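Hi all, long-time lurker, first post. I run a small reading group and we've been trying to get comfortable going from sequence to structure in the token notation. Rather than ask abstract questions, I figured I'd post a concrete chain and ask someone more experienced to write out its structure so we can walk through it together at our next meeting. Sequence below, copied exactly:
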Amino acid sequence: MRALVLNGPYDFSYEDRPDPVCPPDHVMVRVEAVCICGSDIHAIQGHQPLFTFPRVIGHEVAGTVYKRGRDVTDLAVGDRVCLMPCIPCGTCRACRKGRTNACSSLELYGVHRDGGLQEYLAAPAVNWLKIPGIPKAEAVSMLEPLTIGAHAVAKLDLQPGDRVLVVGAGPIGMSCAVNARTYGAQVVLADSNPQRRAFCQDTFHLPALDPFRPDYLQTLRQITDGDLFDGVVDTTAAKASMETDWKWICQGGRIVFVGICSGTLEVDGLSFHMREPGLMVTRNSTRRDFERVLEYWRLGFLDPEQFITHTVPFEQAAQALGQWIKPETGVFKGVVQFPV
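-- Answer (accepted) --
Happy to help. Here is the structure in token form:
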């Protein structure tokens, strides 16, 4: 089979490799589409701290079951599937409590182990979710980033009519925004990039504000009738943004950090405390999040294809991925397509 290997920063090469083995509890999948994630971009740039070279990247994977191990009973050859890329240990306390996304020794396909940018990928059957019907593979590959938003937004404990501010209007920010809408929440976006604001307003019909405008706080108050927000989701990983998120929540509001800040965060302890806020972080997703996203897609509340702006055939991906990193290309979400 052919595999696209990232040997080092900006250094791709195609390799011919043996087809993967398929142990008794595994499923071997013919890959049909791989959506490119922000963490993939960081790996290509050499900025992914959890990453080692060489590596086949890609953890947002859609395909069709090509072979199954003898112990697998819930998937059949020909089934459409989506990869659930988390590889938990299964024995730590988090895993024993069902919080496999927070496993103490968690690994991911495409980061710690070779991922989807190869013609075939074998993984345990528990890592594959069956997709009913015959949706486009490109749309199926977009499910995993939608589950990241689902997992984050669930922490807000939203009720219909709640107000949510999503800071950062990239793909994960938009994933959080559209998932928040499934609860009946009123959602506002904030992003400093005018192109992204325009794309999100035109495509998802959500208000998008510039957080650097001098009247930003005044506008937030006007939108919320002076009450500010029940929840704030920050996807920026930017220290300055994360340290001020508490200013945008109402009394008793909640904050969820999606982006990971590598530095030290500081807040005004007294002012922060007096709002009795809830402050949480979020990490990865679980099977339950995949099932929720799949159900809301079926019901028509989520549309994965809205996110996809660019596609490229697998044989041209080595060159295209280096270009997609550049902001001037306008890539919001790109997908590598495999011949079927």
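A couple of things your group might point at:
The first helix runs from residue 38 to 45.
The domain at 149-281 is CATH 3.40.50.720 (Rossmann fold).
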